[in-house]
């Protein structure tokens, strides 16, 4: 019910001189309450995929269902929470007012108060601070609280911790898992990091570029709750390697002359 | 915390204040020694003039302030209309900008006499010239402000399924305000200047005409008194918006509102 389904989802962009196939026929199922990670090289269409699920972009072909509804219906009924790479907080609002923004827009009273959510993301005492007074990690936590305040069926996160240092990032990831577990939402996390994807997800979906295709999916059968200690286990490394193999399917030794993938000649 | 801010304020204010006072003292001494031309009176004479002709000055300053405020308000309304069109209809952006540049590059001092022929030399002229003088700065601030919504926030409001009205009130207007205020701060002294120029062309009352009378009756202290009065009006206009900005836009990063 609260999951995400993609069937043959394709996105083409009309560029001035040609057509760009950003995503080609993506099939994917993310069960309700699951944590999915999307990983792939830059420009393979991860953000585009997330934007299509959130009804910011419409697929050129194929179908998408969010919690059993078309994305537009899901968006209009406030079932989608989105966290951008930049926190995107409104600088004139305090933390509390930023978290409350979706409630004002939807015109509802929440089951769970904004204050409770601010506690959940570990920002108790900062309710009246302005975004400019917070560190990057704290701002991103506010953005997560804001995304959760309407209790969305799905939580979409586009490299939310991409701008943070490794140490802060790991700490945020542990917290994010706790928040996800507690909120019961279906989560999709876009990331650049193999270890992050394996650490967080139930399933890691690997995308390849030009055009963006699903190279494969890796089931992560590590027990939950996850802890940073698990990252040292051989099972963890084996899963990382499985993801790495999918990412570098067409890899050849670095010392050999590279056989460049043929790029179709464009224009005149 | 508050004490720190007070000391910071004091240390920001006293060097220019001290420099200014020293300059006045030097002028006073130079004047007493007879080193200055007779067109430059000693500061004490100008201050004394405020005492003797203060009522006269008020009589003339009041309509000037009125004309400036009215011209500014009209300019802001018209600019808001143009900026809204320029922002919501992308192809109109270029022409609106061109119009602003055209208005801005028209030499007021040359056009004002032509305007006199059309609308006469009264209050209407003062208001119109004041409005024209500050139009460009206000327009630029508003146009930049209406485009200040960043793409991510726009996407955020889309995902939140916000209505057009909610977008305007909760996103577009607050995003625009720092730029609008920056435009207003630059525009206020320009409106004062516009009023002054228009009053030179002809007025029954106004600080500009008082300045002309004082010049023709060769009364340097009074000329300087009107100059000081005009400066105070300009600084006052600027400060008004600066204070309002501080009060309402405390959140705005100082860099954000730059034009
Ligand atoms: N609005 C758009 N118009 C044209 N091309 C786009 C647009 N959005 C994305 N693209 C292109 O689609 C491809 C995938 O982009 P994106 O989804 O941002 O990749 P990723 O997030 O994986 O780095 C890129 O080649 C990008 O240039
Ligand atoms: Mg991206």
TrEMBL record, chain A:
Keyword Ubl conjugation appears in the UniProt entry: no
Highest taxon of the lineage: Bacteria
GO molecular function, one term: ATP hydrolysis activity
Keyword Nucleotide-binding: yes
InterPro entries: AAA+_ATPase, ABC_transporter-like_ATP-bd, ABC_transporter-like_CS, ABC_transporter_ATP-bind, P-loop_NTPase
CDD domains: ABC_NrtD_SsuB_transporters
Keyword entries, A-Z: ATP-binding, Nucleotide-binding, Transport
Pfam family name, one: ABC_tran
Domain ABC transporter: 4-234
Family: Belongs to the ABC transporter superfamily.
Protein name listed in UniProt: ABC transporter ATP-binding protein
Native species: Histidinibacterium lentulum
């Amino acid at each position: 019910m609260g999951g995400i389904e993609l069937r043959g989802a394709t996105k083409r962009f009309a560029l001035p001189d040609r057509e760009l196939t950003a995503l080609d026929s993506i099939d994917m199922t993310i069960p309700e309450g699951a944590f999915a990670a999307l990983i792939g090289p830059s420009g393979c269409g991860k953000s585009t995929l997330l934007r299509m699920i959130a009804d910011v972009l419409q697929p050129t072909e194929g179908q998408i269902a969010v919690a059993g509804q078309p994305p537009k219906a899901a968006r209009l009924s406030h079932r989608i929470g989105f966290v951008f790479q930049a926190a995107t907080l409104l600088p004139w609002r305090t933390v509390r007012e930023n978290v409350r923004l979706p409630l004002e827009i939807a015109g509802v009273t929440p089951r769970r108060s904004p204050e409770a959510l601010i506690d959940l993301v570990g920002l108790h005492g900062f309710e009246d601070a302005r975004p400019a007074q917070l560190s990057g990690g704290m701002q991103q936590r506010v953005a997560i609280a804001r995304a959760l305040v309407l209790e969305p069926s799905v939580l979409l996160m586009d490299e939310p911790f991409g701008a943070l240092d490794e140490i802060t990032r790991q700490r945020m990831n542990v917290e994010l898992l706790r928040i996800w577990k507690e909120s019961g939402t279906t989560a999709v996390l876009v990331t650049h990091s193999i270890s992050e994807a394996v650490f967080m997800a139930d399933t890691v979906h690997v995308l390849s570029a030009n055009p963006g295709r699903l190279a494969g999916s890796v089931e992560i059968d590590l027990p939950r709750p996850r802890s940073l200690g698990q990252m040292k286990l051989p099972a963890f490394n084996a899963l990382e390697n499985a993801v790495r193999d999918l990412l570098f399917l067409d890899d050849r030794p670095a010392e050999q002359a590279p056989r460049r993938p043929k790029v179709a000649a464009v224009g005149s | 915390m508050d004490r720190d801010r007070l000391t910071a304020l004091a240390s920001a204010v006293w060097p220019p204040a001290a420099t200014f006072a020293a300059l006045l003292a030097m002028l006073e001494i130079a004047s007493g020694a007879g080193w200055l031309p007779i067109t430059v009176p000693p500061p004490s004479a100008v201050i004394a003039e405020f005492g003797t002709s203060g009522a006269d000055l008020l009589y003339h300053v009041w309509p000037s302030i009125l004309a400036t405020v009215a011209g500014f308000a009209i300019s802001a309304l018209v600019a808001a209309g143009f900026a809204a069109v320029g922002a919501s209809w992308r192809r109109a952006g270029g022409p609106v900008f061109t119009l602003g540049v055209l208005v801005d590059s028209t030499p007021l001092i040359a056009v004002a006499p032509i305007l006199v022929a059309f609308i006469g030399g009264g209050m209407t002229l003062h208001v119109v010239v004041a409005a024209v003088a500050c139009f460009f700065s206000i327009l630029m601030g508003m146009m930049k402000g209406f485009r200040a919504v960043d793409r991510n926030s726009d996407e955020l409001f889309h995902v939140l399924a916000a209505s057009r009205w909610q977008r305007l009130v909760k996103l577009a207007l607050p995003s625009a305000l720092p730029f609008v205020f920056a435009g207003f701060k630059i525009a206020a002294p320009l409106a004062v200047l516009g009023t002054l120029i228009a009053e030179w062309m002809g007025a029954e009352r106004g600080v500009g005409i008082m300045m002309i009378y004082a010049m023709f009756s060769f009364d340097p202290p009074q000329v300087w008194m009107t100059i000081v009065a005009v400066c105070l009006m300009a600084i006052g206009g600027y400060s008004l918006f600066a204070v309002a900005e501080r009060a309402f836009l405390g959140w705005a990063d100082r860099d954000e509102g730059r034009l």
